[in-house]
Design brief:
Layout (H helix, E strand, L loop, with lengths): L3 E6 L2 E6 L10 H16 L5 E5 L36 E5 L2 E3 L1 H8 L2 E5 L3 E3 L13 H8 L2 H10 L2 E3 H6 L5 E3 L4 H13 L3 H15 L3 H16 L2 H11 L10
Parallel strand pairs: 2-3, 3-4, 4-6, 5-7, 6-9
Antiparallel strand pairs: 1-2, 7-8
Helix pairs in contact: 2-3, 3-4
């Protein structure tokens, strides 16, 4: 069974992650599938807007801690999406939960439409690891600084209502309605000149992404130092063994 399916709605490409039994955790196969689908969106002139969803139950719980997420792709980076330079709008249609890398995927998109009952968070510190797919600089860019620090440092979950008030989520839908809401927004975009939309997106991304190289360098430093720690190994082991971690601070 495919871990991701695609469906065309006229000028719109809907990409659906299909590992619901694993909460759409990203493994190497999923990374490759997301990359291939986004390559299709990027390269086909008949496609103007993309929608990425995990279906009606869950968006994504992030990296599969057993299989890992595989190597970053040439065009997309982590998960096939995180470092991608895109010219066509990509809308995240989010249901259920978006945790860790799932939240990072959502904020790597251009617009977020989310169900009212979605749970959001960066639980990495609870696993003894560092958010490594853009959250360390994209969360403070998308959220007020102290809110971003709260989520990154506590690992606590937050709500769609709160993220909508803070400007992270664009539109809220009833549970089960995120995809329909995302398609409605995609159709609004498709009414416009694709050239004008793409050039607008290129310019905005160029402006707001000017400091990304520094952000990636700072992230790499933190990840490298943390990976060498005993806490990093303990956090992952405790998660897989379903027990409370025994932190040593070393």
């Amino acid at each position: 069974m495919s871990v991701l399916t695609t469906e065309r709605h006229d000028r719109i490409l809907v990409m659906t992650m299909e590992r619901v039994e694993k909460r759409n955790a990203i493994n190497p196969e999923m990374t490759a599938a997301i990359d291939a689908a986004l390559n299709e969106l990027d390269d086909d002139p008949d496609l103007w807007v993309g929608v990425l969803t995990g279906g009606s139950q869950v968006f994504s719980a992030g990296t599969d801690l057993k299989e890992r997420s595989g190597k970053p792709t040439v065009r997309g980076g982590e998960y096939g999406i995180i470092r991608r330079r895109r010219a066509k709008p990509l809308i995240a249609a989010v249901e259920g939960l978006a945790l860790g890398g799932g939240f990072e995927i959502a904020i790597a998109c251009d617009v977020i439409v989310a169900a009212s009952n979605t749970r959001w968070g960066f639980p990495e510190v609870r696993r003894g690891v560092v958010a490594s797919s853009g959250a360390l600089f994209r969360a403070p860019r998308s959220l007020p600084l102290h809110v971003a620090k709260e989520l990154l440092l506590t690992g606590a979950e937050t709500s769609t209502d709160r993220l909508e008030r803070l400007g992270v989520v664009n539109r809220i839908t009833e549970p089960g309605g995120a995809l329909a809401g995302a398609l409605a927004m995609a159709r609004e975009m498709c009414v416009n000149s694709p050239t004008a939309v793409q050039q607008t997106l290129r310019a905005v991304d160029r402006i707001v992404g000017e400091s990304d190289d520094f952000g990636w360098a700072a992230t790499a430093d933190s990840v490298r130092t943390n990976f060498a720690s005993a806490d990093s190994a303990e956090g992952v082991a405790a998660f897989l063994e379903k027990r409370t971690p025994n932190w040593t601070g070393s």
